[in-house]
Design a protein that fits this description.
Helices cover 36% and strands 11% of the residues. α1 packs across α3. β2, α5 and β3 form a beta-alpha-beta unit. The protein is an alpha/beta fold.
Length: 213
C-alpha cells in the first residue's frame, strides 16, 4: 500500500464477516426464524434475496408485518446467540484492533445488526473494552448501503467523516462508507478487484497502520 500519511483519526469497523466470521450463523438464524413465522409461504427461503441485510429488511422483504417484527428479531437473536461460542475472529482482525489501540486510534463498530448482537460479538472476541463505541441498527433510520450508519459513527466519535478509515468486507458496506465520505479499506472474501474502494486487501495484515496515523 503506497499511501502517504494523511492524519486520519479513526477506524470504523464493520463487524459481521469483517471482525468475526458470523455470516453463516447469522444467515441460518434469519432463515430459521423466517420459516418459523412463515412455515407455509416460504418453502425455500434460501432462494430469496433476504440475506446479508438488516433483520427488519429481511422481515419486510418476506411480507412480514410490523406488529410481529419485534418477536421475529428477538427469535433471530436467540438463535444466533445460541451458537456464538463456535464463532471465530477473521484472521488478522483482532491483531489489527490491538495495533490501532496501541497507536491511540479511535475505533468504532458500525453494523446493521442489533445492539444485542454487536455487543455479544465484541465481547466474544474480547475486544469490547477497546471498541466501546458501537453504532447498531437501533441508531439509524436506514441501514447499509445507506450512508447513515457511517455518518452516525463519525458523529459519535466527534471526528469528521473525511478523517475516518472504514474497513468493510461487503459491497453494501462499501457503498455505505463511500457515500458517507469515508476512505474505505475493502477486505472482501474473494479477490475480484473493485474500483470503487480506496484500498483493497486480501489480508488485513497487509495494512501498515502507521502510514495512516
Amino acid at each position: 500500500m503506497n499511501k502517504l500519511k494523511e492524519n486520519f483519526q479513526a477506524v470504523l469497523w464493520d463487524v459481521d464477516n469483517t471482525l468475526i466470521m458470523s455470516g453463516n450463523t447469522h444467515d441460518q438464524a434469519v432463515l430459521l426464524a423466517l420459516k418459523e413465522f412463515h412455515p407455509a409461504k416460504y418453502d425455500d427461503l434460501s432462494q430469496l434475496d433476504i440475506l446479508a441485510r438488516a433483520w427488519d429488511e429481511s422481515w419486510f422483504a418476506c411480507g412480514g408485518n410490523a406488529d410481529q417484527l419485534d418477536k421475529f428479531e428477538s427469535y433471530v437473536a436467540q438463535l444466533y446467540l445460541k451458537n456464538i461460542d463456535a464463532l471465530v475472529a477473521r484472521p488478522g482482525a483482532i491483531e489489527a484492533v490491538y495495533t490501532l489501540n496501541k497507536l491511540h486510534v479511535k475505533q468504532v463498530a458500525v453494523s446493521n445488526s442489533r445492539k444485542i448482537i454487536v455487543d455479544a460479538n465484541l465481547r466474544h472476541l474480547n475486544i469490547g473494552d477497546i471498541i466501546k463505541t458501537r453504532i447498531c441498527r437501533e441508531d439509524f433510520a436506514e441501514p447499509k448501503p445507506d450512508p447513515a450508519p457511517y455518518l452516525r459513527a463519525a458523529e459519535a466519535l466527534n471526528v469528521p467523516i473525511a478523517l475516518c478509515l472504514a474497513v468493510e468486507d461487503s459491497l453494501r458496506g462499501l457503498v455505505s462508507a463511500k457515500q458517507a465520505g469515508a476512505t474505505v479499506i475493502y477486505w472482501p472474501h474473494d479477490t475480484t478487484p473493485n474500483d470503487d474502494c480506496d484500498y483493497q486487501v486480501n489480508a488485513i495484515q497487509d495494512i501498515r497502520w502507521e502510514e495512516f496515523f
